[in-house]
């Protein structure tokens, strides 16, 4: 989708007050998705205790959502362009609400995993429509303010998710234990569905587009063949079929590339625009986003298990411990875009990778020094350093990756960036069985759990530090400074414009 895709009849009208109700509705849906990603991590130990979930099931509670979300993002955006963004948004928020209810009333871990996968698939329908609806609803002179609000919502979701999850889980409302983290979505989702049907204006792409269902299926099958053996392999004794499946996933991805090349030549509507990879900075940026997603997927799950299972902390204490990290991310992100990147270019991103790596190493040292007696205050310094480094990376990275992409492909490229980061996150969650659980001998006596999880945490942090080193090196292929113009395409879209063109 590009800005010229909005039909003239659907151009936003500045005097229509309904647009602010529409904004509140779609922003609430975006916030609900952001919180749902972070809120679950805090509740995972409670789910394991109360439902008897295995370690591989715990991984799939998070990885299943990320996988379904990643596989459906681009297709979800295309469905909105074809059938109407309002219509697909309502389907997405309705399905997300239903899936949340199924998660909250799950009778066993298997049902919870299946419901989380459904929830991720529905989020893939809902989330891509948010920015598209905002673009179709607000005139150009109001969009800067609106997307500033969107950035604030993103920051608020990162900070409030763990705290809300801690309060709901530890509060044990009505004796439901962890279930309210999902059930809280029901009144919000129902309100969004009813009000969205009334206040959101419908919009579509003016030209006919086609779905690439085969491409989406190949992506999903390839990832499942790679991730399923990773998450189940350790507890099954690493059977031969697992290695065969992981090797076969490479063949599926090769078939995906061949199919996408042919589809692009046939009808110009592939799931993945392969010509983008001829742009050096974009190819490097995709690699950075993927590897960065792997590192984040490993860290956040392992960190939660370390604090709540290894150290025996409550959900509330673990949630409060993460506040300095979230605040540092938000503060550094604001400074990087407004002050640092215009002056220093890609050096800011590389400094972020080094700073985040230094925070990881400091965390490793503190975890070794203080052992099981480590406190939240002692964790604050490495978390602030890590958060500041992450903030320097996440805010300007998309702009750096897209700066040399031709304008006509900006929307497709933005959607692909978001997709590969989610895929990287799912891969990182799958790797937890290797880098964390792989160094923990089972079964463990009660007295052995703490030391074993602390050792597994330090081992996983070593992997995260190595990932950040790879990211630092990959960043040398990014442009020194974001380009102001792209030859043959007119002015390059601004960072805000690129964010609006999130889904093609």
Automatic annotation (TrEMBL):
<dbReference type="GO" id="GO:0046677">
    <property type="term" value="P:response to antibiotic"/>
</dbReference>
<feature type="transmembrane region" description="Helical">
    <location>
        <begin position="281"/>
        <end position="306"/>
    </location>
</feature>
<feature type="region of interest" description="Disordered">
    <location>
        <begin position="484"/>
        <end position="504"/>
    </location>
</feature>
<keyword id="KW-0472">Membrane</keyword>
<feature type="transmembrane region" description="Helical">
    <location>
        <begin position="423"/>
        <end position="440"/>
    </location>
</feature>
<feature type="transmembrane region" description="Helical">
    <location>
        <begin position="113"/>
        <end position="134"/>
    </location>
</feature>
<dbReference type="InterPro" id="IPR020846">
    <property type="entry name" value="MFS_dom"/>
</dbReference>
<feature type="transmembrane region" description="Helical">
    <location>
        <begin position="211"/>
        <end position="228"/>
    </location>
</feature>
<feature type="transmembrane region" description="Helical">
    <location>
        <begin position="318"/>
        <end position="341"/>
    </location>
</feature>
<keyword id="KW-0812">Transmembrane</keyword>
<keyword id="KW-1133">Transmembrane helix</keyword>
<dbReference type="InterPro" id="IPR011701">
    <property type="entry name" value="MFS"/>
</dbReference>
<keyword id="KW-1003">Cell membrane</keyword>
<dbReference type="InterPro" id="IPR036259">
    <property type="entry name" value="MFS_trans_sf"/>
</dbReference>
<feature type="transmembrane region" description="Helical">
    <location>
        <begin position="20"/>
        <end position="44"/>
    </location>
</feature>
<keyword id="KW-0046">Antibiotic resistance</keyword>
<feature type="transmembrane region" description="Helical">
    <location>
        <begin position="88"/>
        <end position="107"/>
    </location>
</feature>
<feature type="transmembrane region" description="Helical">
    <location>
        <begin position="240"/>
        <end position="260"/>
    </location>
</feature>
<keyword id="KW-0813">Transport</keyword>
<feature type="transmembrane region" description="Helical">
    <location>
        <begin position="146"/>
        <end position="168"/>
    </location>
</feature>
<feature type="transmembrane region" description="Helical">
    <location>
        <begin position="56"/>
        <end position="76"/>
    </location>
</feature>
<feature type="transmembrane region" description="Helical">
    <location>
        <begin position="377"/>
        <end position="402"/>
    </location>
</feature>
<feature type="transmembrane region" description="Helical">
    <location>
        <begin position="348"/>
        <end position="365"/>
    </location>
</feature>
<feature type="transmembrane region" description="Helical">
    <location>
        <begin position="460"/>
        <end position="478"/>
    </location>
</feature>
<feature type="domain" description="Major facilitator superfamily (MFS) profile">
    <location>
        <begin position="22"/>
        <end position="481"/>
    </location>
</feature>
<dbReference type="InterPro" id="IPR004638">
    <property type="entry name" value="EmrB-like"/>
</dbReference>
<feature type="transmembrane region" description="Helical">
    <location>
        <begin position="180"/>
        <end position="199"/>
    </location>
</feature>
<dbReference type="GO" id="GO:0022857">
    <property type="term" value="F:transmembrane transporter activity"/>
</dbReference>
<dbReference type="Pfam" id="PF07690">
    <property type="entry name" value="MFS_1"/>
</dbReference>
<dbReference type="GO" id="GO:0005886">
    <property type="term" value="C:plasma membrane"/>
</dbReference>
<protein>
    <submittedName>
        <fullName>MFS transporter</fullName>
    </submittedName>
</protein>
């Amino acid at each position: 989708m590009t800005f010229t895709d909005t039909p003239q009849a659907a151009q936003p009208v500045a005097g229509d007050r309904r647009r602010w109700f529409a904004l509140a509705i779609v922003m609430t849906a975006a916030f609900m998705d952001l919180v749902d990603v972070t809120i679950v991590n805090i509740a995972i130990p409670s789910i394991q205790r109360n439902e008897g979930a295995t370690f591989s099931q715990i991984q799939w509670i998070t990885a299943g959502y990320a996988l379904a979300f990643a596989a459906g993002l681009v297709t979800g955006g295309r469905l909105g362009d074809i059938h109407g963004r309002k219509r697909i948004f309502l389907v997405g928020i309705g399905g997300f609400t239903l899936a949340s209810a199924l998660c909250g009333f799950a009778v066993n871990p298997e049902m919870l995993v299946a419901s989380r996968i459904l929830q991720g698939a529905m989020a893939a329908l809902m989330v891509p429509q948010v920015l598209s609806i905002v673009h179709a609803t607000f005139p150009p002179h109001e969009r800067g303010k609106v997307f500033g609000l969107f950035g604030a919502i993103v920051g608020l979701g990162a900070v409030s998710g763990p705290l809300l999850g801690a309060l709901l889980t530890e509060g044990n409302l009505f004796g439901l234990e962890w279930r309210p983290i999902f059930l809280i979505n029901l009144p919000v989702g129902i309100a969004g569905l009813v009000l969205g049907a009334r206040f959101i204006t419908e919009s579509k792409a003016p030209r006919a587009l086609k779905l690439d269902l085969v491409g989406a299926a190949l992506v999903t099958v390839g990832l499942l063949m790679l991730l399923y053996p990773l998450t189940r392999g350790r507890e099954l004794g690493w059977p031969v079929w697992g290695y065969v499946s992981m090797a076969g996933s490479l063949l599926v991805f090769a078939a995906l590339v061949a199919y996408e090349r042919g589809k692009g030549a046939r009808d110009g509507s592939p799931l993945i625009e392969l010509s983008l990879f001829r742009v050096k900075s974009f190819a490097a940026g995709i690699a950075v986003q993927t590897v960065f997603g792997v590192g984040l997927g490993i860290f956040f799950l392992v960190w939660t298990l370390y604090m709540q299972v290894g150290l025996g902390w409550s959900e509330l204490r673990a949630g409060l411990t993460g506040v300095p990290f979230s605040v540092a991310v938000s503060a550094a992100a604001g400074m990087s875009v407004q002050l640092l990147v215009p002056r220093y270019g890609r050096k800011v991103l590389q400094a972020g990778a080094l700073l985040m790596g230094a925070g990881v190493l400091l965390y490793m040292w503190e975890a070794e020094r203080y052992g099981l007696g480590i406190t939240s205050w002692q964790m604050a310094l490495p978390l602030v350093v890590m958060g500041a480094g992450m903030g320097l990376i996440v805010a300007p990275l998309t702009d750096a990756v897209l700066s040399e992409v031709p304008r006509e492909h900006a929307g497709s490229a933005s959607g692909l960036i978001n997709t590969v980061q989610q895929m990287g996150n799912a891969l990182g969650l799958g790797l937890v069985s290797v880098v964390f659980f792989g160094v923990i001998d089972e079964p463990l006596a009660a007295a052995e759990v703490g030391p074993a999880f602390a050792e597994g945490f330090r081992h996983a942090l070593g992997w995260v530090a190595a990932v950040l080193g790879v990211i630092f090196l990959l960043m040398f292929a990014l442009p020194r400074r974001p380009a102001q113009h792209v030859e043959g395409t007119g002015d390059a879209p601004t960072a805000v414009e690129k964010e609006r063109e999130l889904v093609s």
